Amino acid sequence: MQRLKNFASLLSSDLYKLMRMKSVYIGIGVMIFLTMIIALAQNALTDLLNSLPEDGSPLDPSEVDAVTGTFLFTMLNGAPSSSGVFFLMPIIAALFIGSDFSSGMTRLFVGRGVSKTELYISKYITLSLLSVIYVCLSFAMCAVAAKASEVSEEALSSLFSYTASAFGAQIFLAFTLAAIYTAVCFSMRSKAASMATLIAMLIILGDVLVMVVQISLAMLTTGTDVTGKFVYMLFDPYYCADAFASASVFTPQEAGIAYGGCAMWLVLFFFGGLLLNAERDVK
Amino acid sequence: MENLHDIAITTRGLTKVYGGIKRVDDVSLSVRQGEIYGLIGRNGAGKTTLLRMLLGIATPTSGEVAFFGESSPHALAKARSKCGALIEQPAFYPRLNAKENLDVYARATGAPRPDVSALLSLVGLGDCGRKSVRNFSLGMKQRLAIAMALIGDPDMLFLDEPVNGLDPAGIMEIRELIMRLNRERGVTVVISSHLLGELGRVATAYGVMKEGKHVAELRGEALAALASPRIRVVVPERERAEKLLTSAYGREGFVMRGNTADITGAGTDIAKVSSLFAEHGVALMELRIVSGDLESAFVDML
Predict the structure, then answer these.
(1) How close A10 gets to chain B, by Cα (Å)?
(2) Is A111 in contact with B77 (Cβ distance < 8 A)?
(3) How high is the ipTM of this complex?
(4) Domain termination residue (choose one: B158, B184, B218)
(5) In Å, how far are A51, A111, A268, B73 from B63, measured between CA atoms?
(6) Domain co-membership, B145 together with B248
(7) pTM for the predicted model, two decimal places
(8) Interchain CB distance below 8 Å, B92 and A281
(9) Which residues in A lie closer than 8 A to residue B95 (C-beta atoms)?
């Protein structure tokens, strides 16, 4: 019972520290800014489409809806990607966990009988909570932006019908990415190294790898459908960040690979980081 | 025979290997409850590594640590929750102020919420206001680190170079604080310091570290003997003098530094020493009694 009480106290200390971090609020500001930019871009796109016909006659509203709807679909159902959540979180995680190592506070906590495992779990819970809050905020902001857009009510209603499943998938992904952030930061044990590694992972696993696989598959399977093979990229949680926008239209196989892959990475990173941290001396 | 209940900390064969080198080598020591235990040694002698292992920050390669005779992980964690520590350099969150730092630390370690103002006043930081700790001077940071170590009324304090960066008045205040905590609250203190003179004013027992090994543990009579007067001789012929002193007092009875020998085995009988040299025809350049000096004695051991 006392141990549980002490853990709750440790968790409250981490939450307090997180609340005092300026970067958390700067992150929210960045999310609002990015969402506004996307919303403005969407409206500009709609205006552009409306002015396209050369004869001056108005474009068929359903065609405009179809194009802007796709744009809005990506923005809303991939809200965390649209508002930069998965770019902001590695920076905040590195500052949050790295500062404990850089400042020497971890040494003091462990010297006072706080176990390394408790420190790790507390940090994971705190980061998961922040990730979930950011994902919720990003969906709220993108929903407001979508509502304010110049598309028909019918198209909007169709868009929002996918949002619940995308939201659920992105929340699940938030827990997985929090596990990755925690494991990497506890392995690197410094702000700069953690930040550099996490951003490198985001770029390499989320963009470069996806592009390389896409190109390779296209080259190797000329003339055949590569979609079936490309679905295995869903094992990559960084790729899932975008792909989950389409969660509602996943086939059962795709959904299984996406959720199963995420669950696998969550377990591997969480326990891998935990074991590595337990083995090593505190810096 | 020591009563096991009087022993606060024991280590048995404690060893730590980093990069294939034994930083701490087979250290067995005991710290009694209520003692101020000074850990001395040159840079790299293994003092900080030893303290890190005592606090669980580093895991021993082999050997065992026990607090109050208990060495199970649960017992160690429980005992460590009542330990205050200042290890290596002061640790704190630079963007928070002193009060916030103390508050976060108390929460994280599950210690009772401290009377932050009283604690800050105790270490001489009563007027630091809401200034971020990153703007503190080195001495203020050191004081804050000591305040953090005192959170939760610890039973034991581990202080690694606690007076680093402090001005003479600060050194005196911290010394008095340590002695008061020890005297009034019975806090057991383990201090490592390079300042042997300063350590000599507070410590009641000493552990001497040399190249990772714990070469001596001194308390009570052994310590008093070390501080007793000795006879100093300066000779022109080192080899002959050394041979003579070894045959007369044994290897442990004197310390030779260059052409100077400090003889501890002869008490203060200067006439006897003079006769010894005269009888064997060994020339003397200087012969005198020097008062006991712990600092010099420790330097000889290091």
Answers:
(1) 4
(2) no
(3) 0.81
(4) B218
(5) 81, 19, 32, 14
(6) no
(7) 0.84
(8) no
(9) 20
